[in-house]
Amino acid sequence: MDQDRLPDPLLARLAALRAADLPVRGGRTMAYVYDSGLAGLDELAAAAQAAFAGVNGLDMTAFPSVVTLENDVVAQTARLLGGGPGTAGTFTSGGTESCLLAVLTAREHARAARGVTAPELVLPVTAHAAFHKAARLFGLTVVSVPVDPATFRVRAQDMAAALSERTALAVVSAPSYAHGVLDPVAEVAAAAAERDVLCHVDACIGGWHLGHLRLAEGHGTTAPFDLSVPGVSSLSVDLHKYAYTPKGASVLLFRDAALRRHGWFAHASWPGYPVVNATLQGTKSAGPLAAAWAVLQRVGTAGYVRLAERVHAATARLTDGIGRIDGLRVLGAPDASLVAVASTDPALHPFVLADEMRLRGWYLQPQPAFGGSPANLHLTMTAAAADPDRVDALLAELAAAAGRARRAGPPGVDPALVELAAALDPATLGPAEVALALEAAGVAADGALPARMAPVLAVLEALPAALTERLLPEVVSRLYAV
Predict the structure, then answer these.
(1) What is the per-residue pLDDT for 418?
(2) How many angstroms separate the CA atoms of 424 and 237, rounded?
(3) Could you say which DSSP state residue 153 is in?
(4) Residue 27 within a domain
(5) Alpha carbon distance 235, 98 (integer Å)
(6) What CATH number has the domain bearing residue 118?
């Protein structure tokens, strides 16, 4: 063989490592990844990302291409999601950074405009964990609001009742990740506006899909959820989800540039260069921005409408089919492309079902019980999985796996372990207690996780939330050698 055509050993090593991962193409991984199924799109994105990989988005005066690309991406997003002439936006690294910046901006706005010094963040219990992370990082107190136990939507009157003179931001989801349902955006935004409180719409996972779906002929049933709704002050939407761009692409929209500036950081009180950051990052590659720009230009509005129609039809086919499988049900009535599947049979546990599916090459994401939401499996429908034959294959495998899971029975949890754990103080656990708790949960000392995760998840679900949150970082830390 020609020496120049031998495979690079470094790339071969990377390929070997990837072989142990979940697949990111083909539609069998029903969480974390988004696949358009369009030929040539990955190659285009990779080439665009490589062309801008060395461009530093820290200083747009040194790299004016960053401004051009970001203006294009933000403008296209604003046109889709209710932006007007004064709308401003920021390109971020993902949904978490967009949500963090929305909370930071609201905190600073509340301090400057209303004198709020002990800010609160009003959230439905179904709001994404990123908002709790933001509250911890930026010193806000979370006020959690329960949701309707049947629809899993927050009630507008409950959100209104939770608002106070200390509220910096009210958050609603479009849709919520766990159940795929839209909160009553218009009603909550109106209640917030009456109190001069900002209202953020977390449309990270569904905004691009729903925004294009309502442009489809014959489809207009989605309730208003974007910046066109009076009282909505900001909105986050990820492009690396239903815009099918590479990871590291999200947009945070604001009703105007004046509000956006509350979240910017500027510093000139040092001997170095003047610093101004619109994001939490300083130095950052412009590669993800260039890749997102190229994909958005290539697919275009008409292309995204077609993809949204495919996903919408497939989601309806999936939910209908799940309803026909003995022992399974869909939680709520999904408004977008996210489906939560629970069990109606005590012998059929969702975590065991997830193991059975994964052993057959399908990843369905386990979601532990919380509040009024039972243990369930999360499925994200993407365009690559939207072919009717592929949906039917998933349903057939799900029905067969349900039978195997029913025969296996639910994972056992030692009641004595739960009783002992309930008496522990997570804040005072030492290494020995942590090791004992993890061993009881089925996590090996070397960090190796079992092939079947149902027993581990069942134990973690049964423990008090504070203890689970104490143990989860320990589980992850054991995966790393240094």
Answers:
(1) 77
(2) 40
(3) P
(4) no
(5) 9
(6) 3.40.640.10
Residue ranges with strand state E in 146-233: 167-173, 198-202
Beta carbons of 349 and 367 less than 8 angstroms apart: no
348-386 pLDDT, tens digit per residue, is: 999 999 999 999 999 999 999 998 999 999 999 999 999
Mean pLDDT of 184-205: 98
Residues 128 and 222 in one domain: yes
- CB-count burial class (<10 Å; 0-12, 13-18, 19+) for 138: middle
User: For position 401, which CATH number holds?
Assistant: 3.90.1150.10
Average pLDDT, the chain: 94
Q: Which residues contact 124 (CB under 8 A, 6 or more apart)?
A: 144, 145, 146, 147, 154, 159, 171, 172, 173, 176, 183
0.85 exceeded by pTM: yes
Q: With 70 as the cut, is the pLDDT of residue 305 above it?
A: yes
Q: Which domain holds residue 427?
A: 415-477
Which tokens is 305 given? Answer: 């409408």
Does residue 415 register a pLDDT over 90? Answer: no
Both 343 and 391 in one domain: the answer is yes
Q: What does the alpha-carbon distance between residue 205 and residue 208 come to, in Å, rounded to a whole number?
A: 8
Report how far residue 158's alpha carbon sits from residue 182's, in angstroms, rounded to the nearest whole number: 16
Q: With respect to residue 29, please indicate whether it lies within any of the assigned structural domains.
A: no
- Distance of alpha carbon 332 from alpha carbon 334, whole angstroms: 6
Mean pLDDT within 402-409: 97
As a whole number of angstroms, the distance between CA 75 and CA 452 comes to 46
Gyration radius from the chain CA atoms: 23
